Amino acid sequence: MLQNYFMEFGMLKILKIKSKCFIILLSLVLPLYLFADEPLPGQIIVDPENPQWLKYAGAGPFFLCGPGDPEDFLYRGSRISDGTRSGDQMELINKLAQSGANSIYLQAVRSHGGDGNKTHNPFIDSEPSRGVSTKILEQWEVWFDEMERDGIVIFFFFYDDDAKIWNTGDRVDSAEREFIETIVNYFEHHKHLIWVVAEEYQEEFSARRVSNIASAIRAADDYDHVIGVHKLNGLDFSEFANDPNIDQFVMQYNKTSIRELNRGMAEAWEDAKNKYNLNMAEAADHGTGKTMRQKNWACAMGGTYVMVLGMDIKNSSTSDLKMCGYLHEFMEQRKFYEMSPHNDLVSNSNVNFCLAKPGEEYIVYLSNGGGVTVDLSAASGQAKVQWFDPGTGKYSEISNVAAQQRTDFDSPFAEDAVLLIRTNETDTTAPSAPKDLTVSPQTKGF
Questions:
Q1: Cα–Cα distance between 324 and 101 in angstroms, integer?
Q2: 36, 99, 129, 436: which could form a disulfide with 321 (CB 3.0–4.6 Å)?
């Protein structure tokens, strides 16, 4: 009996010791589990409630509109012996920062078949077998820090089109994985960062290889940044529609008319089915001035972000850059993340495009200005109305109108214009016709 007592006492003691060890271990591991892959406050992330759009973590919606160039940003200027550059990168960043446009499209590996020369990569002496150069990454970090302060997105491609270093089929081998992990670990602390696997991926990689690269990026990234992939011309993204590691379809759609661009973006929006977001990053002959502005807005009304091919910042006019900034700032004041393309609600939908949440809020882009009829049958009561000039960033005064099935509006601006209608707010002001509105120097809408 005494022996049984000591055996039970001994087992109980062992169990207590094991329980304490388990609690200590759990206290160490649980925080790591709970906070793994948590985004940084203010970081650009996929909107968990509206995955076809992005947002700032813990804050409001994010909208992207800016340069889709220069692809060789990281390699501009003469190469110094340690691999760094004596280029104009800071000048470009400072010019962009003054405009409100919020992206730079840049690529890490442009050698090995890409559009750059043999030195356009971040390796020691440009030789992949020697590993990534810390000196080069340190210089990139200086530029990226400045971009971060200015709210400019680091749109970071790992590979240019046709660039391929490791011929490993669908696999990501240890050397490539080390390259990916080095890059991700060095720059993942940036909030305004989007990873992109490759440009025109089909030229060198299989879809399986792209998925494996995206998986390697995701595994290395402690903050769950957005990951995209760019394709050759077209709207189909079905090979990645259900890939848990790919969030953005970086699009190339070489249509020159605003109608074709808008229709294509709306079609891609329907196909996305809330599984990924869309970035119209490359459209041939995107143009400048009013032409560029019309195409930017046509894409935005089709449900996509916009980056302008050929907008290299250095040779881009300040006014063109600002027009991207006006679109970016306008959209971030709206609940566009609750909207979808609705050209069915506007007259002459070949030139007038609509993004809306019927019954609540409508954004109508009149590419040629003039007038438009909007179907407000889903709304009731009064609606607030305001016009926005996408060429100057100015707003009209706010007016009110009774929501009707067919409601006519006339723009107060000479060229293209944006009509903003909000119907989900109570307003006791007597309704007035939404015509002959005066333009005020306001910089924000309702």
A1: 5
A2: 99
CA 365/CA 342 separation, integer angstroms: 11
| Segments of 128-247 assigned E as strands | 153-159, 193-198, 226-230
Bridge partners, residue 362, by sequence: 356, 421
Per-residue pLDDT of the chain (446 residues; tens, 9 = 90+): 444 443 444 443 443 444 454 444 444 434 433 445 789 999 999 999 999 999 999 999 999 999 999 999 999 999 999 999 999 999 999 999 999 999 999 999 999 999 999 999 999 999 999 999 999 999 999 999 999 999 999 999 999 999 999 999 999 999 999 999 999 999 999 999 999 999 999 999 999 999 999 999 999 999 999 999 999 999 999 999 999 999 999 999 999 999 999 999 999 999 999 999 999 999 999 999 999 999 999 999 999 999 999 999 999 999 999 999 999 999 999 999 999 999 999 999 899 999 999 999 999 999 999 999 999 999 988 899 999 999 999 999 999 998 888 899 999 999 999 999 998 654 333 233 233 333 334 446 66
Cα(399)–Cα(171) distance, rounded to whole angstroms?
A: 60
Q: What is the DSSP letter of 69?
A: -
Q: Two tokens at 293?
A: 């502005």
